[in-house]
């Protein structure tokens, strides 16, 4: 993500904004389509939101909430396996 930020920082603001919007929304729409067709829909949605989060506040907040949810799920999975490992 840092390489993308560095590349975008070199561009003038209107070009940077337009490029970010187009790429972010294309990835987001592709991810939504892939939710009902075969493909990595959640991954594309995450990448689309991550790119949109560079310029849009609501995408930044949604991305942050999604990452917090993933962290909670990962913690539950780790505790589940730690508990089951102790029983054997």
Structure, explained:
The mean pLDDT is 88. By secondary structure, this protein is mainly alpha-helical. The protein is built from four helices and no strands. The protein has helices spanning 2-9, 13-34, 41-52, 57-87. It has one domain (2-87).
Short description:
The chain has 88 residues and is mostly helical. It has helices at residues 2-9, 13-34, 41-52, 57-87.
What structural category do the secondary elements indicate?
A: mainly alpha
**Low-confidence runs:** none
The gyration radius over C-alpha positions equals 17 Å
Q: Whole-number average pLDDT? A: 88
Report the helical percentage: over 70%
What general form does the structure show?
elongated
- Sheet with the most strands? none
Beta strands, count: 0
DSSP strand content: under 5%
Report the span from N to C terminus.
42 Å
What order do the helices and strands come in, and which of them pair?
Elements: H1 2-9, H2 13-34, H3 41-52, H4 57-87
Helix pairs in contact: 2-3, 3-4
């Amino acid at each position: 993500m840092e390489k993308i930020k560095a590349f975008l920082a070199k561009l003038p603001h209107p070009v940077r904004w337009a490029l970010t919007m187009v790429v972010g929304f294309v990835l987001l729409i592709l991810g939504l389509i892939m939710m009902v067709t075969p493909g990595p829909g959640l991954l594309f949605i995450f990448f689309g939101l991550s790119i949109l989060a560079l310029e849009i506040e609501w995408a930044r907040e949604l991305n942050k909430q999604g990452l917090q949810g993933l962290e909670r799920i990962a913690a539950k999975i780790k505790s589940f396996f730690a508990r089951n490992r102790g029983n054997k």
